[in-house]
Amino acid sequence: MKPITKSTFLKGCQCPKAVLLSLKRTGPALEIKNMEQWNEVELLARKLFPQGADLGNLISVSRGELLEKSGQALDNRVPVAYGLSFESRSGFCKTDIAVNSGKGLWVYEVKSTTKVTDEHITDCAFQSKIITESGTKLLGISVVHLNPGYVRRGELDYDELFVVEDVTECAKDAEPEISARLDELKKVIEGEDCPDVDIGIHCDEPRECEFKSICWSHIPEKSVFSIGGLRKTVKFSSYSSGIIGLDQIPEGMGLNEKQLIQVRCGRSNETHIDNFAVRMFLDLLRRYPICFLDFETFNPAIPRFEGTKPYQQVPFQYSLHIQRGEGATPEHRDFIASPDLDPRRKFVETLLADTKDVETIVVYNAAFETTVMNRLAEAFPDLAGDIFERIDKVVDLMVPFRDRSYYHPAMNGSYSIKKVLPAMVPDFNYDSLEIGNGDDASIAYASMKKMPNEERQKVILQLREYCAMDTLAMVKVLEALLAESERAVVNEQKQNKKPK
Asked: What global pTM score does this model have?
């Protein structure tokens, strides 16, 4: 049996069944998004421990070569090494940064998060066990993570950008559990039968399992797990009791009114509309010109621009569809910034110009857009007055769907526009787009800086198509909501004319 690696061990801690499924996998492994960003964090963390010997990684060299190089570095007492690796009877691990004082090693595990998590402690405990078993004196182990309070002023200050937390004692406390987990995992790997592990909270924590679609294949699309706003513990408790489909939900389950609307509509396959609430919302959209606005942002782990923090949302693109009057054909305007410069000033100046004569600004999930705009007002005080004026004009199209004033069974417990749009306008969707969601848009934009011009222009076109679809989707959803409301009025009038 090959030595258990750290990644295999951590996967097994989440679910041993996932380890066996990954070993039996015939296709390519799941692509890890944002790997480039994670690598950037590790490379910059090395600035805290400069002039280290880079021993390579498992992509560039074999495990055997890496272990040989590591043995030589230990024999030569290399002061700082990147990628120092160890193997013992329990497994294999590769450290991010190791400092050799001559009396022993202090290991530094680099994480792209802004705090230490339980998984990080497990990670460090595994490394501690392997290193100690290999015969190397380990003095301690720390986690190096990003400082959430760091604000970039000029060049990066690495001592302020990173936080180094000593987790030696926590790792020691976790070692007995590590040993037990390793014994269990070895039995799983050596065995022929897949472990009988039922679905549970572990399927999504600390991250969504890549094999979830396999293990959840027996769960219908409309199930207790699709009920919006219901706590996970309640969902799994119901599942354990045999309550899975919406038709199995008992009356006394303690659902709130929004959840009951979803269950009733899911059972009957009928649409729910509280037309009084919908009409009240639609009354907010009587002042023209109306524009439909969507932002795209990216949130680099390492702050690129003056005055920004790790993972701060930085807007780089917007799309506008503007209606000058009721029933008018929407005009489209958009903006996308160059990836080579700080996009914020140009972004907000162009947005203010494009919305100068607009009376109503329709967005989907106003909390996000207004947060970004408030950050822009902080960054550019000279534009703050105009920015706040635009914020005052914002109307959130998400509200009637979030509040269940309107609910279609096809929404399946969600009020995301990606669910609302196909439910209300079935022939209108994102399927033909190369970029189909905000996460992919952020990654694409962040990657453009290193692209040749021809490839960059191709990505820009894809980003423009995606963002334009978001605002056109709002136009279509609002049109459909107006039509549904008018139909409800007609039906209500028919009901009132019926003899009693």
From this structure: 0.91
